[in-house]
Amino acid sequence: MQRVSRARSTPGGEIGAGMLVLLGVAQEDTAAEAERLAGKIARLRIFADDSGRFARSLLDVGGAALVVSQFTLIADTAKGNRPSFGGAARPDLAEPLYEQFCATLRDLGVHVETGVFGARMAVELENDGPVTIVLDV
């Protein structure tokens, strides 16, 4: 995830200040993990307070999230020069978890825009900081 001043996915949605979430779903991921990750992202304190400290969450600042599915995050590059995506969940398993993750963020009060699951997309962002954090539940 990246803290952004703005982000856009074409095709897909667009947000102002908030987070760009690149979501990779692995074969062994569960609905409980999708919900836990959404809660973590909504409450992660990566936005500055008046003294400049990371003390405010996406919920605190009223920021939005642009969630883009990205199976390439699950790449295994241990052997050879061609990444293997064998650990990524098949689309019929990944898409419901992606949708559940987005729904949980919405239920928590976050405005969510999305890319288009499974589509080739152009993603633009203006990274704020830059702040980029890898979360693995």
Task: Briefly summarize what is shown.
This protein has 137 residues and is an alpha/beta fold. The protein has helices at residues 31-43, 58-61, 91-107, and strands at 2-10, 14-15, 18-23, 47-48, 54-56, 64-69, 111-114, 122-132. Helix content is 25%, strand content 31%.
Explained architecture:
With 137 residues, the chain is α/β, with parallel strands linked by helices. Helix content is 25%, strand content 31%. It contains 3 helices and 8 strands, in the order E-E-E-H-E-E-H-E-H-E-E. It has helices spanning 31-43, 58-61, 91-107; strands spanning 2-10, 14-15, 18-23, 47-48, 54-56, 64-69, 111-114, 122-132. The strands form 2 sheets. Strands 1, 2, 3, 6, 7 and 8 form a 6-stranded mixed β-sheet that branches. The protein has a two-stranded antiparallel ribbon with strand order 4-5. Strand 4 (47-48) and strand 5 form a beta hairpin. Helix 1 packs parallel to helix 3 (91-107). The longest helix has 17 residues, at 91-107. The radius of gyration is 15 Å and the shape is globular. The mean pLDDT is 97.
List keywords for this structure.
8 strands, 25% helix, 31% strand, six-stranded mixed β-sheet, single chain, two-stranded antiparallel ribbon, alpha/beta, 137 residues
